[in-house]
Amino acid sequence: MISVVIPTFRRQTRLRALLGSLANQQTSVPYEVLVVANLPEAGLKKIVESFGPHFRFHETGKLGVNIARNKGLDRARGEIVVLLDDDTFVTDREFLHKIARAHARHPEAIAIGGGYVPKDSLTPIEAAYHWILDHELRATVGERDEARLLRAGNVSLKASQLESHHRFDDRVVFGGSELSLFTRLRSEQNLFLLFDALSVEHRAQVSFFELAKRAFYQGYGKGLAEHDTAPPRPQWNSQLPLEETFRRAHVEQTALFRIAVRTYRRFHSFGYGLGLKDSDLYQASLASKKVIYRRPDLTPTRMLKAFFGGRWRRRLSDAARAHAAALSAALSLR
Fold this sequence. Notes:
With 334 residues, the protein is of the alpha/beta class. The chain is built from eleven helices and ten strands. Helix 2 (44-49) links the parallel strand 2 and strand 3.
């Protein structure tokens, strides 16, 4: 059996589309779909169960994508557990069949994942975000499709090889949420594989401010995981030039696209630096409950430091201060 686990939080429209794509799967392998909501949502349980008896609904009562993922892992009954984010869509009607076949052909792999295919209509900011995600993922792929990093928004795990301590860190609410678990699995010499045939459509809606926030926390998560066998920091400047990103993302060379890519790099690098700084405390907290670790918020001061780089301590004009204050308010976590 295959268990599909979908953590969700206030995305009913996109979740309904995803559930519909799973209900139409063509496979001889029995499967169940577990939707795990963070907080109560009116009518969500009824929506999930309307797709059939093998669609089940759970609720955690707490915010945090990893809390939902862990509850799904605990409640899953399948030998293979597929994790999908609620803003994805399965375009291949044989998606689950291909996952089962991939695990049968590669019993040595504990995790097999796929990439993200962007939706048809993208803004320049969304195009930049999708290119960066794809570029970062594929930069970790070596020979024979072996990968050092997979996305928890589209990955399948062998339940029989997961121990009780193989769970996502429920203190990580957003950004880099899968890194601690995948780093631990890699350190134990487990094999990851990435196949293009297992890609899903990513329907994320990303504004400029959302891009900066995601970049900061994804960079921070990678900095925390920079320990022993953690995935390496992306070498942005040594990879494809910006002109190539335009061609691969199929968008015009707009100023907004360039700004989006550079903004992501800046906030990602700043978050990464903070994560490195906190990594020792974070690792100590994993080993002992007496060590208290708290994840930082994207405060106005940190936003200014990331936005203005090394010049952030210099005096700012009134106009620049007003602009920074507005940007800070938009970027702050609620």
